[in-house]
């Protein structure tokens, strides 16, 4: 099932989304970069609510995030505090957008990452995810705020059953509801080579952690992201969900790291050439 992809790119980040089997697009992505401070804000939202409220909700989340970024609050506040402000402002924005609607209520998930120098902070509400990779190793992923995730933590189901469990779409937290959202936070030191994958449930329900890690490491990130979205759409089929995905490798590579990688590549090619020469000599001698 081939579909057009809404594509975004900023330095060291690519993002995209596709409708999947849905008539409307309720996923939104936002990628912002400040070149002077080499700071990044990455946001992904998955709207819901019916009768057009889902599109209204996810758009409200990214509009609120862009507004706070443009106001420069991220320069003045620690990363976790800025992301908390972002989530609460997005929640308030959805309440404002609810006024005047005759049907449907705008609700949304959110997962957001802020990179400031060597510090990376993240926050999420709902079941849109952040995966963190160091090379091929998974450093961690956010835990969904869903009944299915709760069953997993209780040992009632396995990780492999999570994506297809009937309770997967029953969320325990979200933006736009009657209660103030409880935001889950995380932070870490940014290391060279670390990669971040943000995605909606339409992606992670169809692609394994190993697949996301492998695709996020590919040198051609544009092609890798398009392949990942195409796989999610194909596996979701005609009744599949919207899909949204962000690949990010925000740490700058040092000249020493690049030199070492090139040196290893040259040495590998040299070793392969020697083996080929030895094989040719042995064949000629026999």
Automatic annotation (TrEMBL):
Residue ranges of domain PPM-type phosphatase in the record: 12-250
InterPro entries: PPM-type-like_dom_sf, PPM-type_phosphatase-like_dom
Segments traversing the membrane: none
Family annotation (Pfam families): PP2C_2
Database matches in SMART domains: PP2C_SIG, PP2Cc
Protein's UniProt name: PPM-type phosphatase domain-containing protein
Organism: Dyella jiangningensis
